[in-house]
Design goal:
The complex is a heterodimer of chains A (248) and B (318). Chain A is α/β, with parallel strands linked by helices and 248 residues long. Chain A has a single domain, classed as HUPs (Rossmann fold). Chain A contains six helices and 15 strands. In chain A, the strands form three sheets. In chain A, strands 11-10-9-12-8-1-6-7-13 form a nine-stranded mixed sheet, with helices on both faces. A two-stranded antiparallel ribbon of chain A has the order 2-5. A two-stranded antiparallel sheet of chain A has the order 3-4. The longest helix of chain A has 17 residues. Chain B has two domains: 169 residues, HUPs (Rossmann fold); 119 residues, TPP-binding domain (Rossmann fold), CATH 3.40.50.1220. Classes of the chains: A alpha/beta (248), B alpha/beta (318). Strand 15 of chain A pairs parallel with strand 18 of chain B, so a sheet runs across the interface.
């Protein structure tokens, strides 16, 4: 099985979000970038397939040279090789098109991607990629088993889970549950040393237009101060929620 | 030209989001000087949608569509969008809505914006405000394709009555091969889901152990609320993962969110920020949640929550 894991390079979840150039650009100053948490669950599941079922694992990112440390971290966790598509992506459709070209060239049969990225939260790339490659597609995946070419998967639905059967080739939009938090791996020194020697191939973008563009960013309006209610006076809280906030 | 909205349903009944997307679609149609068309799948009586402005309902009924299948549903949405010459297609931003949207977008060669919180600020260029950076910011996104797909964020536009005398047409849609088959659906019955809830009661490590969740469930019960929990609580196995809300858990966009014994880590707040009113109960007055909340009580949950339950019962009874 040839697995491709799509890796987004995103601000650490604790980052303060600011914008520059008249609120048209994300301010990367002082921001620590990490593997998108949703992708990290997928990568960890891919490592299981590598270790138990002999799968090969390639990681890919669509982005500039600044994303390479994030790809190296994925290699340190255990991926065999990495591909970087050399273009600064501006929308999900563009990313999906570039990934589709990588999938076709590489002959991958299982593509794992986080169901969303923690930066733009578009949730578009896995589904668009599946449509462009005509692969089967399971989104919101919280459990995945592959035997030969048959697939058994679980996806989250409102208020529960759905068990699905499918077959390779397949694209997964994964989230926590595809592996658990405790299964995530921190690269060890040996992994980090080995990652330096693993191949990281830079390919040029196949090109093509985008369908959306970001005109500007804005931050939520500042919040007013919290209204504190005395712990002995919960009646006042009920009254505020009923009369002022009108939510009960 | 038209605006097509997919009015999602479950077991023949409309979800609340269906009324919101119809209300929203009606407004966008007005902006564009056209009509809104609502698509329903396996709903026998769609007349409820007229109340929210749907002049026309396209009703698809097919036993093959009993269980949601993204590829099959997307093919139906695409076929109806083409038949209705839709230039804008609106779905909700639920789990299923965002499973559909990218597939529909590719098949209609449309640009897509998800988690949209408002009607277009301009229709030329077609500009939408959407949530980004896990609720820490918004982006004003321009869709430049002829056809636009919008995933409307829950509880963002609201449900607006706008009664029209509508008509319903049956539509015979083609069923495509899906490649993914539903084997089993497991869904808790009789409980309010986090996605659907107007009120969510959530608790964190401050509750000290899973044995103390009785009062959380009771409070939720009194309020008709869904229960949720913080990430550490689900990681510790005190509560199921399905209750974990936050950046990597479920998003919450309820009218009221009550946080008990949750400090308010930035990742937690990112996931629940879209809720309209936030209440925090915590012993530590320095807990970051107090900066994000509208109302707060500094106090011990084990004393405050039982009192709150008692007083709410009296309030509900009055």
């Amino acid at each position: 099985m040839k697995i491709l894991v799509c890796i987004s390079h995103v601000p650490d979840t604790t980052s303060k979000i600011n914008f520059t150039e008249n609120d048209t650009k994300f301010d990367t100053n002082g921001v620590q970038f990490v593997i998108n948490p949703f992708d990290e669950f997928c990568l960890t599941r891919a490592m299981w397939f590598k270790e138990k079922q002999g799968a090969s694992v390639t990681v890919v990112n669509v982005g500039g040279a600044e994303t390479e440390p994030t790809l190296r971290k994925a290699l340190a966790i255990g991926a065999d090789n990495a591909i970087r598509v050399n273009v600064n992506p501006t929308d999900g459709f563009q990313v999906a098109k570039e990934l589709a070209a990588v999938v076709k060239d590489g002959g991958f049969d299982l593509v794992l991607a986080g169901k969303e990225s923690a930066d733009y939260n578009g949730q578009m790339v896995p589904g668009m990629l599946a449509s462009l490659t005509d692969f089967n597609f399971i989104n919101g995946c919280v459990g995945l088993e592959v035997e030969g070419t048959s697939v058994s998967a679980t996806r989250e639905i409102d208020g529960g889970n759905e068990t699905l059967s499918s077959s390779l080739p397949l694209v997964i939009g994964g989230q926590k549950g595809v592996v658990e938090e405790k299964d995530l791996r921190i690269p060890n020194m040996r992994g980090i040393m080995m990652a330096r020697k693993k191949p990281l191939q830079v390919v040029e973008a196949s090109g093509g237009g985008t369908s959306t563009s970001i005109q500007s960013f804005e931050k939520p309006a500042p919040k007013g101060a919290v209204k504190l209610v005395d712990a002995d006076n919960v009646d006042e809280l009920i009254s505020l929620l009923h009369n002022e906030a009108k939510v009960i | 030209m038209s605006v097509l909205v997919f009015a999602d349903s479950s077991e023949g009944k409309f979800k609340k989001s269906a009324f919101e997307v119809v209300s929203y679609g009606k407004k966008v149609a007005e902006q564009l000087g056209t009509n809104v068309v609502a698509l329903t799948i396996n709903v026998s009586d769609s007349s409820e949608l007229y109340t929210y402005g749907a002049e026309k309902v396209v009703s698809v009924s097919n036993d093959s569509l009993t269980t949601f299948n993204a590829k099959q549903y997307a093919a139906v949405v695409t076929e109806v969008a083409k038949a209705e010459s839709a230039t804008v297609v609106v779905v909700d931003s639920s789990i299923d809505g965002l499973y559909l949207a990218p597939i529909v977008a590719v098949s209609l060669e449309a640009g897509c914006a998800s988690n949209v919180v408002d009607v277009p600020s301009s229709t030329s260029p077609f500009t939408l405000k959407r949530k980004a950076f896990s609720n820490k910011a918004f982006s004003n996104t321009v869709i430049s394709t002829d056809i636009k797909v919008i995933g409307l964020a829950k509880n963002s536009y609201g449900i607006h009555e706008n009664a029209v005398s509508g008509t319903t047409e049956n539509f015979d849609a083609a069923i495509v091969d899906s490649g993914v088959k539903s084997e089993k659906v497991e869904r808790a019955t009789g409980v309010v889901t986090i996605a659907d809830a107007d009120i969510v009661v959530s608790a964190g490590r401050g509750l000290k152990g899973p044995e103390n969740w009785g009062m959380v469930e009771e409070l939720a019960d009194v309020l008709g609320a869904a229960t949720a929990c913080s990430k550490p609580v689900s990681d510790l196995g005190w509560r199921p993962h399905s209750e974990h809300v936050g950046q990597t858990g479920k998003p919450v966009a309820s009218n009221l969110y009550i946080a008990i014994g949750i400090s308010g880590a930035i990742q937690h707040l990112a996931g629940i920020n879209a809720s309209k009113v936030k209440v925090v109960i915590n012993t530590d007055p320095e807990a970051p949640f107090f900066k994000a909340a509208d109302y707060g009580i500094v106090g011990d949950a084990f004393e405050v929550v039982p009192k709150l339950i008692e007083k709410l019962k009296a309030f509900k009874a009055s």
